[in-house]
Automatic annotation (TrEMBL):
Organism lineage: Bacteria, Pseudomonadati, Pseudomonadota, Alphaproteobacteria, Hyphomicrobiales
Keyword Magnesium: yes
Domain Mandelate racemase/muconate lactonizing enzyme C-terminal, chain residue ranges per copy: 131-222
Catalytic residues in the record: 150, 246
Protein name listed in UniProt: Dipeptide epimerase
Membrane-crossing segments per the record: none
EC number: 5.1.1.-
Cofactors demanded by this protein: Mg(2+)
Any matching Pfam family: MR_MLE_C
Length: 327
């Protein structure tokens, strides 16, 4: 059957404001790709990210530019050759994965080599703010087992101490979003170690992270902005202890699954993360997360409203997607 491609930009309000070291946002903007074969529909969602030079309009245009190739039968492996990694390729790759599952009746996790999907415990993110505001946010989320704390500026030592005071029993991971420097790294990571932080994501800018190969890391350090695809991973060894695999960076589930295999071979701990997006973006990431030591797929929990149908969250427990949503 002939396939057709359509795409659109969608916006979803965030519950409140979401702040990291480089930006503040009140809505999540996503690009949705849909591929149909006349009887079945596959969907994928990508998140344009300014840090990587992406805009919603450019990502939408990149998706739409693949219409003729998709109609001509381009598959997921061909897509990896035709498009650079990023949000546009992610939306298309996940839509092709979903269409394959719908058309064949074989669940996507089976095609990915998994025997099934188990519920996962996801981190819950606390936005960057003043110490007292972050303590209050930690207190409100103190019953969640794993909190991800956004840091990345002057006052981070006070911030992480405040979060620990607000949530004395929660496991903590930190995401600095490239916001530390060679001058602040030691004080900040020591403060993280002192309060029992288990992992620090991307403390230094991606182009200035060589320091990590030469210094003590009292808390394991995870690469985020420093890694996009599987071929990036080997260069990380010696600098990082873990890698954050995100489908929007990798350019889809197909590449992300390869990344997970490569990370295991290199002895890197696997974290699976997300951009601010809906359940449609989280669903394929659940497949990669089955092998992850740390799961951060809380995007829908930070929205004022998710799409329907949606993933089911019981507190911080994330249940596998139903076929009606994806896969």
């Amino acid at each position: 059957m002939s396939r057709t491609l359509s795409a659109r930009i969608e916006k979803f309000p965030i519950a409140g404001e979401f702040r990291i070291s480089r930006e503040s946002r009140t809505e999540a903007t996503v690009v949705v790709a849909e591929i149909t074969d006349g009887s079945h529909r596959g969907r994928g969602e990508g998140v344009p990210y300014g840090r990587y030079g992406e805009s919603p309009e450019a990502v939408l245009a990149a998706v739409e530019a693949m219409a003729a190739a998709i109609t001509g039968g381009l598959d997921r492996q061909g897509l990896r050759q035709e498009m650079a990694p990023g949000a546009a390729r992610n939306a298309l790759d996940c839509a092709l994965f979903d269409l394959e599952a719908k058309a064949s009746g074989v669940r996507a996790f089976t095609s990915a080599g998994l025997s099934g999907l188990e519920p996962l415990t996801t981190a819950y993110t606390l936005s960057l703010g003043e110490p007292e505001a972050m303590r209050a946010a930690a207190e409100a989320a103190a019953d969640r087992p794993l909190l991800k704390v956004k840091l990345g500026g002057p006052g981070d030592v006070a911030r992480i101490k405040a979060v620990r005071a607000g949530a004395p029993n929660a496991r903590l991971i930190v995401d600095a979003n490239e916001g530390w420097s060679h001058d602040t790294y030691f004080d900040n990571i020591t403060a993280c170690a002192d309060v029992g932080v288990e992992l620090v994501e991307q403390p230094l800018p991606a182009d200035r992270d060589g320091l990590l190969a030469t210094v003590r890391r009292p808390v394991p350090v995870c690469a985020d902005e420093s890694v996009h695809v599987a071929s990036d991973l080997k260069a990380l060894t010696g600098r990082y202890d873990a890698v954050n695999i995100k489908l929007d960076k990798a350019g889809g589930l197909t590449e992300a699954l390869t990344m997970a295999e490569t990370a295991e071979e290199l002895g890197l701990t696997i974290m699976v993360g997300c951009m601010l997006a809906t359940s449609l973006a989280m669903a394929p990431a659940v497949l990669v997360a089955q092998k992850a030591a740390v799961v951060d797929l809380d995007g829908p929990l930070l929205l004022a409203q998710d799409r329907e149908p949606a993933l089911r969250y019981d507190g911080s427990i994330l249940h596998p997607p139903e076929p009606e949503l994806w896969g």
